[in-house]
Amino acid sequence: MTRVTIPVGPQHPLLKEPLSVRLTAEGERVLEAAMRLGYVHRGIERLVQERTYVQNLHLLERVCGICSHVHTTTYCQGVEALLELDVPPRGLALRTLMCELERIHSHLLWLGVLAENIGFSTIFMYSWRDREMALDIMEGLSGGRIAHAVNTIGGVRVDLDRGEMYAARRLLNELEKHVHDLLDVVEHESTLKVRTQGVGGASLEQVRRHCAVGPLARAAGLDRDLRRDAPYAAYDRLSFEVVTETGGDVWAATRVRVLEVFESLSLCRQILDDLPSGEIATRAPRRVPEGEVVSRAEAPRGEVVYYLRSDGSDKPARIKIRTPTLPALSLVREQLRDINIADVPAVISGIDLCIACADR
Amino acid sequence: MRDLLSVLVTVFVFPGFGFLVACALLFEWIDRRTIARLQARVGPPWFQPVADLLKLLSKENVLPRQADRPICRALPVVSLAAVLTAALYVPVGGRVVYAFEGDLIVVLFLLSLPALFYFLAGWVSGGIYSILGGSRSVLQYFSYEVPFLMALSAPAILTGSWSISDIITQQAEAGWILLVQPVGFVLAVVGLIGKLKRVPFDIPKAKSEVVGGPLTEFSGRKLALWHLTVDIQTVAGIFLLVNVFLGGGDLTLLQGSTPLGLARAVTFAAKALAMLLILSVTSALYARLRIDQLASLGWRILAPLGLVQLAATILIGVG
């Protein structure tokens, strides 16, 4: 059989963001994959050096269109550490609430994308409909569906009143019912199973070697979650389970993500039930003392790391961002070897790539 | 003169081309609307299929340089002609344009032609996705066509006639063939889904894998004709199954009675809509299969079932 090169991307119905994967195939078998990145590079790491710490909040929120809040959270944590600033407990709790809502919305979005890519548009429609509820809560809280502008250095910028808390609780309850239905379908639908089970399997060894993080690593059995292992924000006061599965295939990753939505729903409820009173933010000075710091947080896709260096002025000297998609990209190249062409969509979407994050 | 006029009306209006095209667009709308409702969406308004068709017809018609132009231009026309001709032999509520002994075979042959043209379209239009989609469509063709043919041969063997009209008449006396050959009916429906490349058998045109499949490089008028071909194939396939398995336009389930005119048309329409509903619900319920999974479904389950059905018909039904 002759070898052919199949271009997937930078424009392709499979991809929601520009990424170029060149598959070398023989018949229906993929032998090798080569990647090209950088189509959405915006030079954000350079741009932050031109702006003040407060202006950077808005720039860094736009690193990613899905996990926008977790980026500012990590950034604020870093700056707050440099300033040795104590964030009031209510501010931390509200910050955590947004993080968890964002995780719910990200995981449901991912489930829809996976379903659409394996030709199951009904699940796509349902999970994106349910995702709207998480977006509604975030909109009620902050006024923004995608870019929330909730975080500020020293705390958060929006507070919840009784009415908003009531509305959020009601939506959370309804959302939980819908996610139960989704889980039911995911666990029992046979065509979904045959398309995801045994597809894109990553072993524990592979996950370790590529330093994969987040649901991807937890699906392979790596029990690691920053929210528990290195608690930040309000996570030390909350109780939750870290969901792990074995096998590392797309099926396991699906289960991990759907079950994590339940954990996140419970976390949101815990925060709303036990919201500390008091201030939501402390005032931060304009200038940040000289020093460097590493800040970490568990984004929906796994650990995101910010390195910050300050030279004592009101602008950062250097910010380096490491997103969870980076190790996932090196893993997916290995997973795209010796598989069926029809499994490529499941493998690529199973990883939950965020190209905007990775390219910056 | 009168005869000529009535022939023209039969061929071009009812139950000929005009009726078929109207039916095709109506069925497409019902199908899209049903799936949308099942997916918690609103779905398109009734004129959407017409608007889509007109829009495509008026759009720019481009082909890549390496494509074989004359063949690419001819293929959609020929396959549309094939399905339209097939539909002429399929009775609609007792009315048929032309019928003769053996028309079932002709219809089956003409209905399977578009699959081959579809493959050719992928092969000559010169794009990597088209070629992949084309080779997939041939693999798929072998998986569904054999069970489909076996399923539709069984009623003919049971009634001892290869004429669709004969099969309908005999059902009016002896009851629906669905009741004696439920397995055959299921096989025929699965085969039809494969023929129409609907979910879960939309493998040759899986957009996340091969973009648009064999039709990736087609645009404008040619693409519009391809879409119309599939729509008319849907109508012809549904009408064929209604006639062969559900007793055509006849009212009663078991007892023989041949209702007239309107009652007959209404019964036929109800049965056809029920069939369409089966197709729509199926496509909302499943994820797309992989080509090897379809092949093993076709050859390990469907084809043996079809053989059993045929053997049972020959041994018990006729012999």
What's the quick description here?
The complex is a heterodimer of chains A (360) and B (319). With 360 residues, chain A is an alpha+beta fold.
List the helices and strands and how they pair.
The complex is a heterodimer of chains A (360) and B (319).
Chain A: E1 3-8, E2 20-26, E3 29-36, H1 44-47, H2 53-61, H3 68-83, H4 89-117, H5 121-142, E4 151-152, E5 155-156, H6 162-188, H7 190-196, H8 204-209, H9 215-219, H10 226-229, H11 250-273, E6 291-299, E7 302-310, E8 316-322, H12 325-335, E9 339-340, H13 344-351, H14 355-359
Helix pairs in contact in A: 2-3, 3-4, 4-5, 4-11, 4-13, 5-6, 6-11, 11-13
Chain B: H1 2-12, H2 17-38, H3 48-57, H4 69-88, H5 103-124, H6 128-159, H7 164-174, H8 177-180, H9 182-196, H10 207-210, H11 220-245, H12 261-285, H13 291-318
What does this structure look like?
- The complex is a heterodimer of chains A (360) and B (319).
- The mean pLDDT of chain A is 86.
- Chain A is an alpha+beta fold and 360 residues long.
- In chain A, helix 4 (89-117) packs antiparallel against helix 11 and helix 11 (250-273) packs parallel to helix 13 (344-351).
- Chain A has helices at residues 44-47, 53-61, 68-83, 89-117, 121-142, 162-188, 190-196, 204-209, 215-219, 226-229, 250-273, 325-335, 344-351, 355-359, and strands at residues 3-8, 20-26, 29-36, 151-152, 155-156, 291-299, 302-310, 316-322, 339-340.
- Helices cover 49% and strands 14% of the residues of chain A.
- Chain A has a four-stranded antiparallel beta sheet.
- With 319 residues, chain B is mostly helical.
- Chain B has one domain.
- In chain B, 72% of the residues lie in helices and 0% in strands.
- Chain B contains 13 helices and no strands.
- In chain B, helix 5 runs antiparallel to helix 6 (128-159), helix 6 (128-159) runs antiparallel to helix 9 and helix 11 (220-245) packs across helix 12.
- The mean pLDDT of chain B is 85.
- The interface between A and B is medium-sized, with 31 and 29 residues.
